[in-house]
Design brief:
Helix content is 35%, strand content 26%. The chain has 19 helices and 20 strands. α16 crosses α17 and α17 crosses α18.
């Protein structure tokens, strides 16, 4: 039997890509106009046949389907579960979605099949999946763990920089789909294990990286394993955040994307802090969004059709459930955790409100830098920060606002410094600060650069050095600087 990775090359050679799916209305954030998409793919061609089968789930005649997948036969792909014969022709058994250089697999959705989600439904790459990947620290490591791997995207990405990856899921169908995706992409260093959360890796050696996009929906009980219908409130997430860091090797990172509930708008840090602020680990809680309980319930009833699963049949059921749990609002975000178990370590907890639309590209390098910086700020007395050799990171831009002054030419009013990779963390700075940052190149202690800058502006160097720790601390905490 031919290797499935050959099928990836075949469909890509026909032009099956993220761009070709976008051409029929994908990835816009709104439901696809299926009538328009059907009209756009009506003319017979291998690409149109593939889009209809593996994205739109529209039946294709056997001759057209066979020509599109050749030299594979339809029966070969059927044995893998990629196609099936349906009334009116051949359709995809799974959707094939290109994402981040990989072909990902998922089950078709109710609007594509006309039936509710099956209880072992396998979700595709969604917003939470993308956020988790964006906020994961990437480096060459020996061992990685993907908890609740679903369709396997996080495991496949980790396989690019980890010698060995273990992916776990309680849903056996998800394990099958993830294994199939690995075959399709030619990835061989992932081991798949069935089981709940950390159970499949009990007794394993520590991991250098743990990632998880667990089933975190907070809802009345239902039978969809991919959305966590058997868990009470956010108890599954709490358990995972308490237990997963203990499975990290010292210096290892863990990133988990999740929902959690709280009573109002100002107490969103409290419950996650009680789970994360522990000895032996540093933790950064990032809140990305927040919903009223009514908006949250209506969205998930609509998106997942939870009124068809279990007793969650109305908005009133959700409100009674939230009343019992004391839910006022529900937040969405991520926890990034690093194991740091050195004797007498001053472990830290930090919480920030950010938005994912202010994040450009992968943020892993920025996150690793901020963890190193935050540790230095916590561990060192403020007056010792000036002794560090610091440099501004290369992924930056400085935007200036200038005005015309008579006899002086253009005069800078103010400037905005922002990072161009990761979260932008915009900071308004004056000319003095901009000049200082430009002089921080890692070749000398920061205090010497501060003193030199002060002399250039006719200020007292010793006074400037004494006043600089708060500025250095802030710029380190935001990741604008790094320790050389």
């Amino acid at each position: 039997m031919k290797a499935l990775t050959e099928f990836k090359h075949i469909i890509e050679a026909h032009g099956y890509s993220r761009q070709s799916l976008a051409a029929v209305g994908a990835f816009t954030g709104v439901p696809i106009d299926r009538s328009r998409a059907a009209a756009l793919t009506e003319s017979p061609s291998p690409l149109n046949a593939l889009v209809r089968m593996f994205f739109l789930r529209l039946p294709i005649s056997e001759p057209l389907a066979a020509a599109a997948v050749a030299p594979f036969t339809l029966s070969e792909l059927e044995r893998h579960g990629l196609v099936r014969e349906d009334e009116g022709g051949w359709v995809g058994g799974l959707a094939i979605i290109p994402f981040a250089g990989l072909l990902t697999l998922r089950d078709f959705e109710p609007h594509e099949t006309g039936v509710p989600l099956r209880t072992d439904h396998v979700l595709g790459v969604g917003l939470a999946t993308s956020i988790l990947s964006t906020l994961t620290v990437r480096r060459r490591i020996a061992r990685a763990l993907d908890i609740g791997a679903g369709q396997g995207f996080q495991s496949m990405v980790a396989a690019g920089h980890a010698a060995r990856v273990i992916g776990t899921d309680i849903n056996p169908r998800a394990i099958q789909v993830a294994h199939l995706a690995c075959e399709l992409n030619g990835i061989t260093n992932i081991e798949w294990r069935e089981g709940s959360m950390l159970e499949p890796v009990s007794g394993e050696a520590p991991f250098d990286l743990i990632v998880s996009n667990p089933p975190f929906i907070i809802s009345p009980p239902h039978d969809l394993s991919c959305l966590g219908g058997a868990s009470e409130g956010d108890s599954l997430v709490e358990s995972l955040l308490r237990e997963a860091p203990s499975r990290l090797a010292d210096g290892g990172f863990c990133t988990i994307v999740f929902n959690w509930h709280h009573t109002g708008g100002d107490d969103w840090r409290d419950r996650p802090r009680s789970w994360l602020a522990r000895a032996g680990q540093d933790a950064w809680l990032i809140r990305l969004s927040s919903d009223s309980r009514e908006d949250y319930a209506r969205r998930w009833i609509h998106e997942a059709q939870l009124d068809a699963h279990g007793p969650a049949i109305s908005i009133d059921d959700w409100m009674r459930y939230f009343d019992r749990l004391g839910v006022g609002r529900i937040s969405m975000g991520a926890a990034v955790i690093r194991a740091r178990r050195a004797p007498h370590a001053r472990n830290w907890f930090r919480a920030d409100e950010l938005t994912i639309d202010r994040c450009d590209g992968e943020a892993g390098d920025q996150i690793a830098r901020i963890f190193a910086n935050q540790t230095a700020v916590v561990e060192l007395p403020p007056d010792e920060l000036a002794a560090l050799s610091l440099r501004i990171t290369p992924d930056h831009e400085l935007r200036e606002r200038r005005v015309q002054s008579p006899g002086e030419g253009w005069r800078t009013l103010d400037a905005t410094l922002r990072q161009t990779r990761g979260f932008d963390f915009e900071v308004r700075i004056d000319t003095h600060a901009a000049t200082l940052l430009g002089g921080l190149d890692g070749s000398r202690p920061a205090g010497e650069a501060v003193a030199a800058c002060a002399r250039d502006f006719g200020a007292d160097p010793s006074h400037a050095v004494r006043q600089c720790p708060p500025f250095l601390s802030r710029m380190l905490g935001l990741g604008h600087l790094e320790i050389a």
